[in-house]
Design brief:
The structure is a single chain. By secondary structure, the chain is α+β, with helices and mostly antiparallel strands. The protein has 2 domains: 3-43, no CATH class; 49-87, no CATH class. It contains 3 helices and 6 strands, in the order E-E-E-E-E-H-H-H-E. A 4-stranded antiparallel sheet has the order 1-4-3-2, with no helix packed on it. Strands 5-6 form a two-stranded antiparallel ribbon. Strand 2 and strand 3 (26-30) form a beta hairpin. The longest helix is centred in the middle third of the chain and has 7 residues, at 52-58. It is elongated. It starts with a strand and ends in an 8-residue tail after the last strand.
Length: 95
């Protein structure tokens, strides 16, 4: 299943909006009297997307070390598994 990302648009909080999306990625939002134009792109199939800057800030200690002991090889994988997800995966789950 594909997802669409809309650049620069905040979620409406007061009323539903009428959206017009052209196949070329132009998105127009009907405000009743005026239209606002945004750019929309289709996201390719992807796994969970995380905030890389927040992840690095929260785990700086672990990311800037060289571990000699092999028992710590999975540390980065463990940290990534616990990273907060910004956009969930859109991959079809395989059985």
């Amino acid at each position: 299943m594909a997802d669409i990302l809309i650049f620069g648009m905040k979620m409406p909080t007061d009323e539903p909006l009428r959206l017009v999306l052209n196949p070329n990625g132009q998105l127009f939002v009907d405000h009743g009297v005026t239209f606002t134009e945004y750019e929309a792109v289709e996201l390719p199939e992807h796994g969970d997307l995380i905030d890389r800057d927040a992840f690095r800030a929260e785990n700086e200690y672990y990311l800037n070390r060289e571990f000699i002991n092999p028992k710590y090889e999975d540390t980065l994988d463990d940290l990534l598994k616990d990273a907060p997800v910004v956009i969930p995966s859109n991959k079809e789950e395989s059985e």
